[in-house]
Design a protein that fits this description.
The protein is an alpha/beta fold. It folds into two domains: about 80 residues, Urease, subunit C, domain 1 (Roll); about 260 residues, Metal-dependent hydrolases (TIM Barrel). About 35% of the residues lie in helices and about 20% in strands. It contains ten helices and 16 strands. It has a seven-stranded mixed sheet with strand order 3-2-1-4-14-15-16, with no helix packed on it. A four-stranded parallel sheet has the order 10-11-12-13. Strands 5-6-7 form a three-stranded parallel sheet, sandwiched between helices. A hairpin with a 4-residue loop joins strand 1 and strand 2. Helix 8 packs antiparallel against helix 9. The two termini are about 10 Å apart. The chain binds zinc ion. The site of zinc ion has 4 residues, from loops. InterPro entries: Amidohydro-rel (IPR006680), Metal-dep_hydrolase_composite (IPR011059), Metal_Hydrolase (IPR032466), Metallo-dep_Hydrolase (IPR051781). Keywords: Hydrolase. This is Imidazolonepropionase-like amidohydrolase. It comes from Saccharothrix ecbatanensis.
Length: about 350
């Protein structure tokens, strides 16, 4: 089945007319076009922080659930995901199945002893963290470190984290770090990690350095905001005060990050899957321009993963909307069509 897409393409809004020649866009007409889709075109959406295949912390990866979650992402127009931490070794079809998103993953989370969810991830001594991380990066290109945990978990020391970054970069990999404390965030930025995940309570003074050194921020803003009402109903505790303090200022941190030129990535980190539109709207509500909030979930996130946009030679992904989603982010709820690897996988005629 040959798919042709035409219309105004974001980010620049120019008119394009592209044919999918297998998994490559081309402007050269391809014979036997069976589907023509017209509208406002994005090069597919990206969820840069999602953990498909499991719904309860500590449980093992379930292949049927994994497939189901990934289908939900495709329904939402997501053609690529990054999983910073998986609950088990993914099956061979993960990231390769023609009907399911392209995928990048970091294998199991790497955490300090006594931190993170029981049953998930790998506990690693400080003196072996760099070696374990570089071995993981050789396998999958990414490593995920739990840099700190909840309100009281002592952060991974900056010298350990710096060793991880050096070892992983030496093998061509990248490091994503979970932080929800000021100290863990500061260590991650000082170590020069590739992406800060959540970044709750990060000191805003560090944003300029993040922008300069190319450290991305995946704020998972909607995910944190979603939890807040439930946390507010709990009895007072240090853990409650920590979370409420961080979640309440997180939107302004996101706005400041965008303002400082930090690359922001849209990630959901929550259930149900296939809700990247909620994060895009949360980023916009926080103060990012709709154009930039969409970039965080589409062309800029793709560029971060090494995927070019809607241009000849690029992998043939697209999500198509009736109207310009920048003027109406609710368009994200109603994609006309989703093209993945040159195939029409949702919608169209
Ligand atoms: Zn996560």
């Amino acid at each position: 089945m040959v798919v042709r897409v035409r219309g105004r393409a974001l980010p620049h809004g120019e008119y394009v007319d592209l044919y999918a020649d297998g998994d490559r866009w081309t402007t050269d007409p391809v014979r036997n076009v069976e589907a023509v889709v017209e509208g406002w075109l994005l090069p597919g959406l990206v969820d840069a922080h999602t953990h498909p295949g499991v719904e309860v912390p500590g449980e093992p990866l379930d292949d049927l659930m994994l497939r189901d979650h990934l289908r939900q992402h495709v329904d939402a127009g997501v053609t690529a995901i990054r999983s910073p931490g998986l609950a088990g070794e993914p099956p061979d079809w993960f990231g390769a199945d023609p009907d399911l998103p392209r995928a990048w993953h970091a294998g199991p989370w790497l955490a300090q002893h006594g931190q993170f969810f029981d049953g998930w991830g790998r506990r690693v001594d400080h003196d072996e963290m760099a070696a374990v991380a570089s071995a993981q990066a050789v396998r999958t290109g990414w490593v995920k470190i739990i840099g700190d945990w909840s309100s009281a978990g002592v952060p991974v020391p900056v010298d350990v984290l710096t060793g991880v970054v050096d070892a992983v970069h030496a093998v061509g990999g990248r490091v994503a770090v979970h932080t929800q404390q000021a100290g863990g965030g500061a260590a991650a930025v000082a170590a020069g990690v590739d992406s800060v995940e959540h970044g709750m309570l990060l000191e805003p003074e560090l944003l300029t350095r993040m922008a300069e050194q190319g450290t991305a921020l995946t704020p998972t803003l909607h995910g944190l905001q979603q939890v807040l009402p439930e946390v507010l109903r709990r009895d007072d505790s240090p853990g409650k005060r920590w979370f409420v303090e961080g979640a309440r200022v997180h939107a302004s941190l996101v706005a400041a990050a965008a303002e400082a030129g930090v690359r922001v990535l849209a990630g959901t980190d929550s259930l149900p899957h296939g809700r990247i539109m909620d994060e895009v709207r949360a980023l916009a509500a926080a103060g990012m321009r709709p154009h930039d909030a969409l970039a965080a979930a589409s062309w800029d996130a793709r560029a971060y993963l090494g995927l070019p946009g809607l241009e000849p030679g690029a992998p043939a992904d697209a999500v198509v909307y009736a109207e310009d989603p920048r003027t109406d982010l609710d368009q994200l709820d109603h994609p006309i069509a989703v093209v993945l690897r040159g195939r029409l996988v949702r919608g169209g005629h």
